[in-house]
Amino acid sequence: MTTNLQQTITLHNGVTMPYIGLGVFKVEDGPEVVQAVKAALKIGYRSIDTAAIYGNEASVGQGIREGLAENGLTRDQIFVTSKVWNADLGYESTLAAYEASLAKLDLDYLDLYLIHWPVKGKYVEAWRALETLYQAGRVKAIGVSNFQIHHLEDVIHTGTIKPMVNQVELHPLLTQTDVHDFCKVHGIQLEAWSPLMQGQLLDNPVLSVIAAKYGKSIAQVILRWDIQRGIVTIPKSTKEHRILENSSIFDFELTNEDMAAIDGMNQNLRVGPDPDNFDF
C-alpha cells in the first residue's frame, strides 16, 4: 500500500519518482503559479510538472526556488518535469528547447524531460536528442507524453534507450488499459494527466457512492485508484485547500471490488486531443 506523499516508484534506470505531483497546465505565468508551487512544496509534494507550451516555466522556477528556501529543502529533494513542444521537435531544435526550458526554470538540470506529443515524422529525431541529453548527464530521466503503443514501438525499435515514462490522459472514462499493459511489459512507467477529467467526474454517481463509503471526495477516490494501479498522477490545482485535499489519499485503500467498478467505467472518452488525430 502506498502510504505517504513522498513515496516513490523506481524508473527502469534506477531514478526514483514520486507517485503524486502538482500539474500546472493552463495556470497563467505569474503569482498564481508561484503560490501553487510553493503551497504544494509546503504541504509535502515533491514533484512539479510543467511544459514549454504552458508558458509558465519562469514562474514555476520562482515557486520552486522560494518553496525550497522556505521549507529547508534542497534541489535534489524534488522532481521537476518539463516537455518539448511540437514546434521544436527535431534533433538540434529539441536540444535547444531543453536549454531554453532550463534557463526559464533557472535550474541546472531536469529530473524528467518528455516529448509532449508524437508528431508524425518528428518524434523519432526528437527522441534521439533526448537520448543525447540523457547520455551526457544533462537530465536524470527521459520519456514521452501522449504516446500510443505504435509510437512507443517506434522509439523502442529505432532508439537505444527505452522511455522511462509515458504521460497520457488517463481517468476512469479513459483507463488506457492496453497502453498500461504494454508499458508494464517494457518497464515504462505510466503517468496520468487530467486524472480528474478536468472536473467532469466530480459528480459521477458511481464514484459518489464509492467516495461516501470511505468518507472521501471523488477526487481523492480517483487519485487513490491511480496509485493502486501503479500509475503516477499529477492533479492540477491552484487552490491550496484543493492541493491539500488531493494529497490526502494515503489513509485508505480501495477494495478490489471498488477498483473493478471504477475500471468498468471506461468509455475510451477523451477531453484532450486524440494522439493519432491531432492537428499539430
TrEMBL record:
PROSITE patterns: ALDOKETO_REDUCTASE_1, ALDOKETO_REDUCTASE_2, ALDOKETO_REDUCTASE_3. The keyword NADP applies. Keywords: NADP, Oxidoreductase. Pfam families: Aldo_ket_red (PF00248). The keyword NADP applies. Residues 20-266 form the NADP-dependent oxidoreductase domain. PANTHER family: 2,5-DIKETO-D-GLUCONIC ACID REDUCTASE, NADP-DEPENDENT OXIDOREDUCTASE DOMAIN-CONTAINING PROTEIN. Belongs to the aldo/keto reductase family. This is Diketogulonate reductase-like aldo/keto reductase. It comes from Paenibacillus qinlingensis.
